[in-house]
Amino acid sequence: MSSPNPFPITIVNNSGSSEDVHVTIKGMNASIKGNKKQQFYNPTTKDWSDNATSINIGTSKESVINIPNINSGIVYLSFGAALKFADRISPPNVGNPSDPSFNVIYDKFEISFLPTDGFPFIDITNVDFFCVPLQLQEKLSDGSTNGPKGFSKSRKDVFSSFSAGMKDNWAKIIQNPNKEGILRIIAPNKALVSNNVMDNDFDASSFQSYVDAVWEYYAEGKGKSIQVDMSEIAKFNPGYQDVVFEGVVSGGKFVFSEKDGSGKLPKITFTKPSGSNQIKGSVFGCEDLFAAPNNTPQSVPAKNLGAAFNVGLLAHPSITDPVLYLMPPTTKTQSKNWKTYKDEKVFYTNTMTLKDGSTLDCYNVYSKYIHENAIDSDDYGFAFDDVTQSDSTLADKNATGAIVTIQKID
């Protein structure tokens, strides 16, 4: 069975707000084979456009938007005003108060609906920020539902959780312009701007102590290593099926190489992030030094390394096994894997004591609180949360529609 095209998504407005809700849909028209052009889709006119376009669904309790085959689609829900996009396609910069849409309350969810799949992949994402609690369900052909994912809590309750938990430097990611009330919580990799309105310059350099400790922990000759199964990219890279790469630190770099193999496959190396901006971009952003280009050999260790940093698995004091097995759990020799550590609630528990006697949380604290507030602890708190099997994706081949509920924001 294939899902209906266009795919109906019911927006349920439980926000309690008197402001109109504006819907903006951005993505690539997947009905055009090989299309890579980002455009905007208007579900009323059924047109794709190079210019930002949105529809106003007012304060209706329920509204249905129909989305056709779309690749890398993002649906923005904003209150009181349609969002403005710079350079034709760039979304608002949530780290910069001078952005024309900075003060707009909005959030987003993602959808990819490819003809080759016949059904959509949909998720709630807070990789960039948290502003509005959204909840996602799928309607299935047998009358049942899949989910929910996302949030059942109000905006106020989620904000209260962050306010209580964010201390010292981490408190800078809480956006409270002019002390008039929290606007949103910004992800650490997006907190790059300092100005007179607020200090968003979250300093990630304190995390350097943990990065250095990880490099030392996995140093060659110390008996500790990371292993990843490379099979997932074998379809695009012959020779990687059932091949395991092992990573240790050698010559100052994290080096992944073929384990017990011919040695003909090239090694994959990663430079140690150094300084606040590199840690923001590479560790918390899972890009830059830890870039993971799709379907490449580099992508497998890169996204596993980045994810392990964000949840604090690397050099974790309670993990005594000499080998840290990560993704995917297909290697028969694996005694533990991502799912094991998730089920045992090891994520977001790693701390270390610094030389001055203070303690450092060795994980993405923003992501920790995103997951603590999410349904079943599943959501996108950072880019590769799907690697940890903690994401909010729903993708059922029998999906006939979806429901996105806006929870209370006042």
Task: Summarize the structure in words.
With about 400 residues, this protein is of the alpha+beta class. It has two domains: about 180 residues, Sandwich (Thaumatin); about 160 residues, 2-Layer Sandwich (Metal Transport, Frataxin, Chain A). The protein is about 15% helix and about 30% strand. It is built from six helices and 22 strands. Strands 2, 3, 4, 5, 7, 8 and 9 form a seven-stranded antiparallel sheet that branches. Strands 6-1-22-11-12 form a five-stranded mixed sheet, with no helix packed on it. α1 packs antiparallel against α6. The model has no long low-confidence stretch (mean pLDDT about 90).
**CATH-derived architecture of the largest domain:** Sandwich
DSSP E strands, number: 22
Q: What would the average pLDDT be, to the nearest integer?
A: 92
Query: CATH class of the largest domain, anyone?
Result: Mainly Beta
The rounded distance between the terminal residues' Cα atoms is 41 Å
What is the gyration radius calculated from CA atoms? 22 Å
Oligomer: single chain
Label the overall shape: globular
Summarize the structure.
The chain is an alpha+beta fold. It has helices at 155-165, 208-217, 276-284, 299-311, 338-343, 365-373, and strands spanning 7-13, 21-29, 38-42, 47-49, 54-58, 62-67, 70-79, 106-113, 121-124, 129-130, 134-140, 145-150, 174-175, 184-186, 225-229, 244-250, 253-258, 268-271, 323-325, 351-353, 359-361, 399-406. Strands 2, 3, 4, 5, 7, 8 and 9 form a seven-stranded antiparallel sheet that branches. A five-stranded mixed sheet has the order 6-1-22-11-12, with no helix packed on it. It has a five-stranded mixed sheet with strand order 18-17-16-15-19, with helices on one face.
